[in-house]
Design goal:
- The chain is of the alpha+beta class.
- 25% of the residues are buried.
- α1 (8-23) packs antiparallel against α2 (50-72), α1 (8-23) runs antiparallel to α4 and α2 packs antiparallel against α3.
- It has one domain.
- The strands form two sheets. Strands 2-1-5 form a three-stranded antiparallel sheet.
- Helix content is 52%, strand content 16%.
- The protein contains four helices and five strands; from the N terminus they run αββααβββα.
Length: 161
């Protein structure tokens, strides 16, 4: 595997994706209560949130898989309606926005009318930085813009009578 085939955008997406995967195991939201006899604590990781944790991870994994197929195999992917560089930018931006919303919008736990507001933990901020790194990598791939819009992008214009 020749890593020189990877562009800067590819390397940023892959590195940030690895950091995001690690951050999924860290505490994102939690609570600590002093009972007088000791401290009781609990936390949620990224795996506890589908829309704010697992879905962005799936998008990042799909981006990394596309990079691997495009750069390290001879498989020809079908032509999408948008250039691949725009797809990477949109997907990276989506991951960044989802994690930004996960950070801004609070989280609570509880049952039967008893709700506890949870505090943000360090894993959420690491995941947010990694998601912003994925968005930056998608933007870098968009700036590279080395692919065409599809099968008809290279056609010649019609000639007049």
């Amino acid at each position: 595997m020749d890593l020189n085939k990877l562009s800067n955008g590819d390397k940023v997406i892959m590195g940030a994706g690895i950091v995001f995967l690690i951050a999924m195991f860290l505490p994102w939201w939690g609570i600590e209560v002093d009972t007088g006899f000791g401290t009781v604590s609990g936390s949620n990781s990224g795996w506890d949130y589908f829309l704010g944790g697992i879905l962005p991870l799936l998008i990042v994994v799909a981006m990394i898989a596309l990079i691997a197929v495009q750069k390290f195999s001879t498989t020809e992917l079908p032509a999408p309606p948008l250039p691949w560089s725009q797809i990477y930018a949109i997907a990276g931006g989506l991951v960044g926005v989802i994690l930004l919303l996960r950070t801004v919008i609070g989280s609570s736990e509880g049952e039967g009318g008893f709700e506890i507001d949870l505090d943000r933990k360090y894993g959420l901020f690491i995941a947010l930085l990694a998601a912003l790194g994925v968005a930056a990598g998608g933007f870098l791939k968009f700036q590279e813009g080395d692919d065409e819009i599809g099968a008809g992008a290279g056609s010649t214009p019609p000639t007049p009578f």
